[in-house]
Amino acid sequence: ADFDGVLVNWKEKGHQVELVGMEPMEGTDAYKLKVITKEGDVEYFYLDADAFVIIKNTTNHKIQGAEVETESYMSNYKNVDGIMMPYTIESKMKGQTISNIVFDSLLFDKEMSDSLFIKPAPASK
């Protein structure tokens, strides 16, 4: 898994990035980037022209043999230890929201108890 995303160290990862142009997006101008991964997958990223944060990402997936486009919208950015992070991520497929993730807080490199990762017991009936 690429936890950093395809844009971080893209050249070292063997991806290609092309500036497609500028488009209005979510009330601001956005740079549109086309990314071709080393596996040949194509993604588009829309970066806010002022803040240089991702405000939209589109990808194509095959689901049961059909090509389907997924759109992800990132918003509500906050500074977390010097890194701008989206606190809201909404994903859409065919114009319908399929998930909406809202974070209360984000932490980097914090100690966590191993007990947080223990599988809970099955619920009794």
Describe the protein in words:
The chain is mainly β and 125 residues long. 3% of the residues lie in helices and 55% in strands. It has 1 helix and 7 strands, in the order H-E-E-E-E-E-E-E. It has a 7-stranded antiparallel sheet with strand order 1-2-3-4-5-6-7, with no helix packed on it. A hairpin with a 5-residue loop joins strand 2 (28-36) and strand 3. The protein is globular and about 55 Å long. The mean pLDDT is 92.
Give the key terms.
125 residues, mainly beta, seven-stranded antiparallel sheet, 1 helix
Radius of gyration from the CA trace?
17 Å
Rough shape?
Answer: globular
The CA-CA distance between the termini, in Å, is: 37 Å
Q: What are the segments in which pLDDT stays under 50 over at least 5 consecutive residues?
A: none
Classify the secondary structure makeup into a structural class: mainly beta
Biggest pleated sheet: 7 strands, antiparallel
Overall residue-averaged pLDDT value: 92
Into which percent range does the helicity of residues fall? under 10%
Count all strands and give the number: 7
Number of helices: 1
Strand numbers in spatial order across the main sheet = 1-2-3-4-5-6-7
Element string (H = helix, E = strand): HEEEEEEE
Measured by DSSP, the beta-strand proportion falls in over 45%
